[in-house]
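Quick one, T. Sequence first:
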Amino acid sequence: MSMIERRRRAVPGLNTASLPDLIFTVLFFFMIVTHMRTETVKVEYHAPQGTELSRLDKKSSVVHVYIGKPLGGQKAGQAATCVQVGDKIVSIADLPDCIREERRRMSPDEARQMVVSIRADKDAPMGVVTEVKQALRRANALRVSYSAEEANLKNK
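C-alpha cells:
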C-alpha cells in the first residue's frame, strides 16, 4: 500500500478590510437614532407614582414645566419652590410670556397641538402647582398633562 501524504492546510487569515465600513455604519446609525436631551433640569424633581398612566404621542410639541426645589440648595432671594421652562428658571408671573415664546418657536401645526407637561416634584406645594395652572390659562395653554412614574404594586 502506498502511503498517502497528508498536507497540512493553513487556515486563511481573517479578512478585516470591511471592518471599518461596518464600524462607521453602526456609529452613524446610533448618531441618527439617539435622542439627546435639550434641556438641563435645574430643579430637584422626584416624580409621583401612579397606576393609570399613558404616554404622550408627539414629543416635538411638548413643553416641559418642572416644579421643585432648586438644585444645589436654596440661595438668598430664591423661593423654596422653583419653576423651570426650558433651560431657565422663571417666576410664575413670567410663565405666560415663556409659554408664548415657546409657542412662537414651533411651527403652526405644532403650536395648535402644543401640550404642556407639568413635571412637579411629589413634595411640591399644591398651591404652587395651582398658580402654575392659572398662569398657563393666562397664556392660553389649555392642554396640560401631568408626568408620573409607574407605581410598583406587589400582590398584598
